[in-house]
Amino acid sequence: MESIYMKIEIHIGGKTLTASLADNATARDFASLLPLTVSMNDLFGREKYGDLPKALSENSPRTNRYEVGDVAYWSPDHQFAVYYHQDGESIPPPGIIPIAKIHAGTEKFNVSGSVKVSIEAVK
User: Fold this and answer.
1) What's the rounded Cα separation, in Å, for the pair 88 and 104?
2) Which whole-number Å values give the CA distances from 120 to 18, 55, 63, 72, 82, in the listed order?
3) Tens-digit pLDDT profile for residues 56-86
4) Among residues 17, 34, 23, which one has the least CA distance to residue 102?
5) Contact 18, 29 (CB under 8 A)
6) N or C: which end of the chain has fewer CB within 10 A?
7) How far apart are CA 75 and CA 35, in angstroms?
8) Three-state DSSP state, 72
9) What are the backbone dihedrals phi and psi of residue 20, each rounded to the nearest 5 degrees, phi first?
10) Where are the beta strands (DSSP E) in the chain?
11) 106: helix, coil or strand?
């Protein structure tokens, strides 16, 4: 199955957001961890990040830019982040690896403090 067609659901605050997985090895690794429930903390008022149970593949292109709605992997700490606010800052080295894109509803992450999120593959 091509992962570019794979959708995931992100459950947050009683809402369900849909995202499309990127077509790369890191995203496929991420999908293999689903379903996943994680507490996500806030960073810089622009992203929520959570710990993954294991490291993901780093065999995918990295970037130091993000867009609102991006879900990306931060390899130094085996974490993933959801970007909900664009502050114009670039991501420090080694950069992030995009794993998914949320289609709508990213503002649900724009709350103070941590959020509990569950993620699953769409059957």
Assistant:
1) 20
2) 10, 18, 25, 16, 15
3) 999 999 999 999 999 999 999 999 999 999 9
4) 17
5) no
6) C
7) 20
8) strand
9) -105, 135
10) 7-12, 15-21, 36-43, 47-51, 70-74, 79-83, 97-102, 115-121
11) helix
Token code pair at residue 41: 């903390």
Instruction: Give me the pLDDT at residue 3, please.
Output: 39
Helix (H, G, I), strand (E, B) or coil at 66: coil
Tokens of 21: 């997985």
pLDDT under 50: residue ranges of the chain: 1-4
Please state, as a whole number, how many other Cβ atoms lie within 10 Å of the Cβ of residue 77: 11
Cis bond upstream, residue 61 (ω within 30): no
Q: What is the token pair recorded at 111?
A: 């709350």
Tokens of 66: 């993000």
Whether the full predicted model's pTM is greater than 0.90, yes or no, is: yes
Partnered with residue 10 across adjacent β-strands are: 17, 119
DSSP reduced 3-state for 47: strand
Residue type (1 letter), 19: A
